[in-house]
C-alpha cells in the first residue's frame, strides 16, 4: 500500500469511527450496528469474556438504562492500515447518568480491528479493557485518566471505602433478587454454603455503595433474629423515582415520602424481610 493509499484509508477509517462514536452518543443502535461486520467479535467491558456481534435488542436494552444522551469521546486515536485490514487503538471516555441516578464517568482502552469490504470499512473486532489494581483487591481502575501516573511506592488503597452494612436475612437469595427490583442492586459476588442453597456471602452494589448479606446458620450459632434498631439510608437525587420503584416491587410504606421538619425530602419503607430503608433527597435552593 502506497503512502497516499495509506493516508486515504486512515481518513476513511477515522470517519467510520467518528460516526460509530456518534451513534453511541445518540444511543442509535441501528447506526452503531451498521458499522460492524457480520462476524464481528466483541471483547467488551461487560460479561461474558467473549461475545458475538451485539444484537439490536440487547444494545437497545443497555441504551435504555441511561438518562438522556451519552457522553462518549475518543482520544489518542492511532490507525494502521495495510491492504484490506486495519487496526485502530485509542482511549475512550464514557459518561452519563443511569435511570436510578447513578453517574458514570471513566476512561478505558479501545482496540478496533477493521476489514474493508464492498460497502467500505467494517469493524470486525472490538476490544475494550481497563487495568485493575495490583494490590490484591482486583478492583477495576476506572478512576484513571490519560494523565494519570502510578506511584509504585504509595501504600495500597483499601479495597472498599466506608462502613459497609452486613445483614443476616431470612432468605439471602430472595433478598438479593428483591433488592435488584426495588433498589437497582447489582450483584458483585456470591458464595454458597455446602448445601448449595444458602448463601455464605453475597455482595451487592446499590447507589454507588455496598451491601453484604447472608443466610442465617443456626447450626453454627448464627440464628436469624428480626432486624431492628437500624435504617439503611439511600441518599439520591430523584427520590420519587427510587420510592415508586421500591413500592412497586413490594416495599411497605411506614413513613410517607414528604418534606421532613429538618428540610430533606424523606420517607421510610420496610422490605419483605423486615429491613427498614429510608429514601432521602436533600432539598436544593429553589425547591
TrEMBL record:
Domain of life: Bacteria
Pfam families reported for this sequence: Glyoxalase, SnoaL_3
Protein name, entry field: DUF4440 domain-containing protein
Gene3D superfamilies named in the record: 3.10.450.50, 3.30.720.110, 3.30.720.120
Amino acid at each position: 500500500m502506497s503512502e497516499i493509499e495509506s493516508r486515504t484509508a486512515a481518513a476513511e477509517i477515522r470517519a467510520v469511527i467518528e460516526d460509530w462514536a456518534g451513534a453511541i452518543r445518540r444511543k442509535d443502535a441501528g447506526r452503531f450496528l451498521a458499522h460492524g461486520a457480520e462476524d464481528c467479535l466483541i471483547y467488551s467491558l461487560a460479561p461474558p469474556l467473549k461475545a458475538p456481534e451485539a444484537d439490536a435488542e440487547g444494545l437497545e436494552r443497555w441504551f435504555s438504562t441511561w438518562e438522556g444522551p451519552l457522553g462518549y469521546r475518543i482520544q489518542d486515536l492511532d490507525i494502521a492500515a495495510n491492504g484490506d485490514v486495519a487496526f485502530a487503538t485509542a482511549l475512550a471516555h464514557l459518561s452519563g447518568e443511569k435511570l436510578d441516578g447513578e453517574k458514570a464517568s471513566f476512561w478505558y482502552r479501545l482496540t478496533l480491528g477493521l476489514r474493508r469490504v464492498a460497502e467500505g470499512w467494517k469493524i470486525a473486532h472490538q476490544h475494550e479493557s481497563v487495568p485493575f489494581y495490583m494490590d490484591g483487591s482486583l478492583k477495576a481502575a476506572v478512576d484513571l485518566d490519560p494523565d494519570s501516573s502510578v506511584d509504585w511506592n504509595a501504600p495500597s488503597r483499601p479495597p472498599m471505602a466506608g462502613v459497609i452494612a452486613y445483614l443476616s436475612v431470612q432468605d439471602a437469595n430472595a433478598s438479593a433478587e428483591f433488592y435488584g427490583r426495588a433498589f437497582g442492586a447489582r450483584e458483585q459476588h456470591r458464595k454458597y454454603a455446602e448445601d448449595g442453597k444458602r448463601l455464605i456471602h453475597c455482595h451487592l452494589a446499590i447507589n454507588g455503595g455496598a451491601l453484604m448479606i447472608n443466610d442465617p446458620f443456626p447450626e453454627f450459632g448464627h440464628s436469624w433474629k428480626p432486624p431492628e434498631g437500624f435504617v439503611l439510608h439511600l441518599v439520591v437525587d430523584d427520590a420519587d423515582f427510587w420510592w415508586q420503584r421500591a413500592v412497586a416491587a413490594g416495599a411497605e410504606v411506614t413513613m410517607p415520602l414528604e418534606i421532613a421538619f429538618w428540610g430533606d425530602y424523606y420517607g421510610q419503607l420496610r422490605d419483605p424481610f423486615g429491613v427498614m430503608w429510608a429514601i432521602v433527597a436533600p432539598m436544593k435552593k429553589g425547591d
